[in-house]
Amino acid sequence: MPGKKKNLLTRFLKWRYKNISNKTFVQIMSVIVGFLAGLAAVTLKNITYFIQAVLEGGIVISQNQLYFILPVFGLTLVYLYVKFVHKRPIQHAVSSIIFALSKKGGLLSVKNIYTPLIAAPLTVGFGGSVGLLGPAVKSGSAISSNLSRLFHLEPKTRSLLVACASAGAISSIFQSPIAAIIFAVEVFTLDLTMLSMLPLLLASISGVLTSYFFLGNEVLFSFSLSEGFELKDTLFYILLGIGTAFASIYFTKMYFAILDFFKRFRSPKYKLLVGGIAIGIMLYAIPPLYGEGFSFINNLLEGKHLDALGNTPFDNYTHNIWVVIALLFGITIFKAIAMTATFAAGGAGGIFIPTMVMGSALGNVVAKVINNLGFGFEVSESNFTLIGMAGLIAGVIHAPLTAIFLIAEITGGYQLFVPLMITASISFLITKNALDYTIYTKELAKIGALLTHNKDQMVLGLMEMEDVIETNFKSVQPEMTLGEMLHQSVSKSTRNIFPVLNENQKLMGIIVLDDIREFMFDNELYGTLFVKNLMHAPPEHIFYDTDNMKQVMQKFQDSGAWNLPVIKEGKYVGFISKSKLLTAYRRKLINYTR
């Protein structure tokens, strides 16, 4: 049976090559992956909402007491799934996709199709304070990657279709096809041309139609604008941009600080226990931290701040607006902590929607403060809630255009384009100057796997070190005489450089042909002159385990060398030559830009 399926696939591929151009086939595939990514997103949402609906009654009956237990229970289920089924730690969704695009030609394992559909609902449904966008994008991208591999598509096309799948998933979740395309371009640093634009557009349309088909006209935010932009509010939108910038910096720094704290716990069980209890305590005190938080945003948009806050230990004091402001500001502070604790404890999810929740709370706080200072100012709390979301998205993930178009699309708020641009651009500029990398990209930048819109850096990031290492160098030992070196290595080598290795294959130094040229024909020195007397240190070393291709290129530039030795796990493995490095760079650049 498997042979029959393989034969059918081979016949289809032959037919496709003869009858369908590559361009047309990519466009067809973009529609398919958009639909499948949208279907994955819809499935993910429905599973999560079903779990939440089942547990909701118990939470109400227990008067929030279950908040202490549910996160630990959900994280335990995820831990058991990872240990016995997935069998490897769950990686951050968007970061792992960027790594796959950068270093694996867009290849993602089959497990990445179904694991997000299991782990994320268990995490979010049981109270984990993370979002579903990242897992939806991961599942859709894995579907696209494996379909591309099945149909023998080249890496560049496969990467484009992975970006198409992400656009389809985002379009399906938010019903915002334009923002979905922009997200793929900004976050995955896709080179936007007409060749890539049409597949992205088709995938995005396919994803949003899938959402409409299965969910009807159900929208995330049941809100329509009643107040547009007023010039007199410009200064307040600038202040909101500054506020969201500092909140974005706090969000990012807190994320990495908490992850570093949890690294102290070597056992996943301790991480689960500490993280689960911490989340439970936060949920009991601040119920809106439960799950994604879309209902919280909707209540703020409708002006129902008490419904947004839910039942808290501070209910007796919420008649005072400043207590409400303090509680909403607490959500701004603790959303980042609850989200990161969920990740650190082993949960699965995304950061995008928690960013929106945090931004909505902050925007609402700023508006309430302005309206209650007593200076006679009056601004729209709903508008500030929306624009606060855009400011956080622009600052946290460095994607201002995504932020602007997403908020405009999901609310029909194109009247707010000017304040959206003001707040998002200020937040992005301040955050970008304060933080070089985002939550998505910081770890990738350390290993040289970061994709950027800078073509030079992009191409260097796509290059693999093993592709440029040369091993046809004759090695010599320190105790060799000049004569032994000449007869055993120099006479049999086509290269003019010789690595000096000890018995453990560790590099002691190098000898260049120019170093021995004056002694080569002096027979009297053949038995008295030793390699250890002739060798010298190389101008620089390349470390396979830690250096990325950008650092390798920099070392050639700084040292002025033509060949540099490569060290892997403390042992010599070969040389990289400048000529081969530049040839590989030019070839990769041509393939990337064609």
TrEMBL record:
<feature type="transmembrane region" description="Helical">
    <location>
        <begin position="157"/>
        <end position="185"/>
    </location>
</feature>
<keyword id="KW-0813">Transport</keyword>
<feature type="transmembrane region" description="Helical">
    <location>
        <begin position="345"/>
        <end position="366"/>
    </location>
</feature>
<dbReference type="InterPro" id="IPR000644">
    <property type="entry name" value="CBS_dom"/>
</dbReference>
<feature type="transmembrane region" description="Helical">
    <location>
        <begin position="270"/>
        <end position="290"/>
    </location>
</feature>
<feature type="transmembrane region" description="Helical">
    <location>
        <begin position="197"/>
        <end position="215"/>
    </location>
</feature>
<feature type="domain" description="CBS">
    <location>
        <begin position="469"/>
        <end position="529"/>
    </location>
</feature>
<keyword id="KW-1133">Transmembrane helix</keyword>
<dbReference type="InterPro" id="IPR050368">
    <property type="entry name" value="ClC-type_chloride_channel"/>
</dbReference>
<feature type="transmembrane region" description="Helical">
    <location>
        <begin position="113"/>
        <end position="137"/>
    </location>
</feature>
<dbReference type="InterPro" id="IPR014743">
    <property type="entry name" value="Cl-channel_core"/>
</dbReference>
<keyword id="KW-0407">Ion channel</keyword>
<dbReference type="InterPro" id="IPR046342">
    <property type="entry name" value="CBS_dom_sf"/>
</dbReference>
<feature type="transmembrane region" description="Helical">
    <location>
        <begin position="64"/>
        <end position="82"/>
    </location>
</feature>
<keyword id="KW-0869">Chloride channel</keyword>
<feature type="transmembrane region" description="Helical">
    <location>
        <begin position="386"/>
        <end position="407"/>
    </location>
</feature>
<feature type="transmembrane region" description="Helical">
    <location>
        <begin position="414"/>
        <end position="431"/>
    </location>
</feature>
<feature type="transmembrane region" description="Helical">
    <location>
        <begin position="321"/>
        <end position="338"/>
    </location>
</feature>
<dbReference type="InterPro" id="IPR001807">
    <property type="entry name" value="ClC"/>
</dbReference>
<feature type="domain" description="CBS">
    <location>
        <begin position="535"/>
        <end position="593"/>
    </location>
</feature>
<keyword id="KW-0406">Ion transport</keyword>
<feature type="transmembrane region" description="Helical">
    <location>
        <begin position="235"/>
        <end position="258"/>
    </location>
</feature>
<protein>
    <submittedName>
        <fullName>Chloride channel protein</fullName>
    </submittedName>
</protein>
<keyword id="KW-0812">Transmembrane</keyword>
<keyword id="KW-0868">Chloride</keyword>
<dbReference type="Pfam" id="PF00654">
    <property type="entry name" value="Voltage_CLC"/>
</dbReference>
<dbReference type="Pfam" id="PF00571">
    <property type="entry name" value="CBS"/>
</dbReference>
<feature type="transmembrane region" description="Helical">
    <location>
        <begin position="20"/>
        <end position="44"/>
    </location>
</feature>
<keyword id="KW-0472">Membrane</keyword>
<keyword id="KW-0129">CBS domain</keyword>
